[in-house]
Amino acid sequence: MDPTFRHWWRLIDDLPGKLSRVEVWQDGPPPPLTGDGHLHATPTSVVCLEGVVRIVSPGRTMDLQPGQGLLIGPGIWHRHEGLRRGSVWFGQGFLPTCSDVLIGDQDREWRGRLPSQPSRRLMEAALAAADDAGRRSGFVELVRQVLGESVDDLPFANPALQRMIARLWSNLHRGVAVEDLVRASGLSRAQAYRIFAEGYGVPPKGAIATARLWLAEGLLKNGLSVATVAERCGFPSADTFARAWKRAHGAPPSKARTSPGE
Asked: Could you tell me if 219 and 143 lie in one domain?
């Protein structure tokens, strides 16, 4: 194994015993229509393994120290500042077909994939914990789960794929369309579709539809109105959102927070 990768994984192996603090960004203002940044449709995590890792969201900045983590709720607009030399970070999120993990420093990064469950369930439980002790306990369980999985390479290195994913995550609330992703790729429609489906796991249209509904689920759990959720997820109207939600779930979106198992 590459010495750098070996060092990174050793830091993650040590994380359960060194995790000292887990912050949560669960609520925030609507995504800005200008400026850099992005949001995710599902919870994501960021951990500092060495050095300092800075995450910025409108009105707040978090400088994570080694052993400190941040759980970011669905729909929270944020950006990752460039890493300082000597800093290493670890993050985890979710795609339609898998959970993705990222480890990196100021010079390079590596992405891997593992099954979405039980990681997503564990992350959502940690995000919903009532206090820091509960968040840390839940986060430790999540990290141990990742360490116990077989993690494969995730083919995100293609620059055209990275541009399409960046456009998706930074424009979901603006009503991003398949044509926007194709334009961002700089490729023909057929080439863009093939590269996106191979790397992201589903075609562009399916990725957008899934991301909007996942984001809507998270925002409804936070108590936002159907009209507000529709706007923040890029639907042209509340009625359009309601129809899409009912097709996927069989019930109106107003019932999302009282559905079985929640």
From this structure: no
Domain endpoint, select from 97, 123, 153: 153
pLDDT value of residue 34: 72
pLDDT tens-digit map of 86-118: 999 999 999 999 999 999 999 999 999 999 999
Q: Are 13 and 129 within one domain? A: yes
Q: How many folded domains does the chain comprise?
A: 2
Per-residue three-class SS string for the chain: CCHHHHHHHHHHHHHHHHCCEEEEECCCCCCCCCCCCECCCCCEEEEEEECCEEEEECCEEEEECCCEEEEECCCCCEEECCCCCCCEEEEEEEECCEEEEEEECCCCEEEEEECCCCHHHHHHHHHHCCCHHHHHHHHHHHHHHHHHCCCEECCCCCHHHHHHHHHHHHHHHHCCCHHHHHHHHCCCHHHHHHHHHHHHCCCHHHHHHHHHHHHHHHHHHCCCCHHHHHHHCCCCCHHHHHHHHHHHHCCCHHHHHHCCCC
Question: Whole-number mean pLDDT of the chain?
Answer: 94
Of the three residues 123, 153, 183, the one that is the final residue of a domain is 153
Q: Give the domain extent around 97.
A: 3-153
